[in-house]
Amino acid sequence: GASDEIVDKYISEACQEFNLPEYRVGIWARSVAHLDTVPPLPFTEFAGLTFHQYQLTSIQTLTPAGGALGLFCGAGKTVTGAAAAVHLTTAFHYKDRLWIGCPLNAIPAWERMRPFLEPYFSEIRIFSVDSAHKYVAISPAGGVLILDELHLLGGRTTRRTDSCHKLRAKFDACIGLTGTLVHSGVEATMSYADLCIPGAALFATRWSAGDHFKCLVKKKLGPRTVTALEKPTGENRERYLEWLSRWCYMLRPSSPEVKACLAIPDQALHEIKLSGENLGGEPGHKELRPGRDLQLELRRADRTLQQPVRVGAGPVGDGVERAPRPCEPAASLLHRDG
Length: 338
Known about the structure:
37% of the residues lie in helices and 16% in strands. The chain is an alpha/beta fold. α3 packs across α4. The protein is globular, with a radius of gyration of 25 Å.
């Protein structure tokens, strides 16, 4: 093999070509190999919230170059990602620069987090990922990048995703936040991996990944036979999830770590059968009129409902029990609270 001097020379030339500081490439390489770890979070509260244990654990599973946090909706992704950015910056002495890319409708939530981040960062920019192409020429000074709703970026063939890859190279670490990645295809997930930790995908092409996970399937398209990249199944799905866990920490509401911290209250449910006969139509009647038929069924529910209904019960809502008042049918409760 090549000597260390030759390898160092190639690395140095590549860094110059892509305008990357060598120390940053070293951070990425050691993170891909899991040679360096992130110390425990030195604080248990942030932005006025006390962390659950699963949130503390998720931050510690990151690498110095970042990683992905696959936390379900309602698990506190925003505050966890913000605290992780602070922790990586202070633990590894990165430049106090934080950029946050997210969908347009998530910007207000991140703006509410800004006052809690300002003591740690001299530069904070919150931008829509749809505008990432405007920032690809920024200084490669380092710092931390957060990409919220990572699963929306997809493969690298789109301008938005390709711009985020170029932007990623300007930062030391990147934290991807998402609800789930298991429904994404192999090619898109490889893109996510390299966004969080450049090189973490481990495969040079999607075809090599498909061969590794045994998910290349031949399909007939008229007179032609094409090879498609499917989602891994069976044993290969387990291998796929193991690969995913190298750079992404994933939790579901049913995960033991979550159930040990959160208890979702019982909910009052009323089943509405949307069929022609059940809604008073003629036998065999199949055509439904959603507005009128749903109102009929809700009125029927008002007549038969004997117990108080829990309005807003669940992870979101006040959980107050009250029965519908005569002037406030169940339909109005559903419209207002649910």
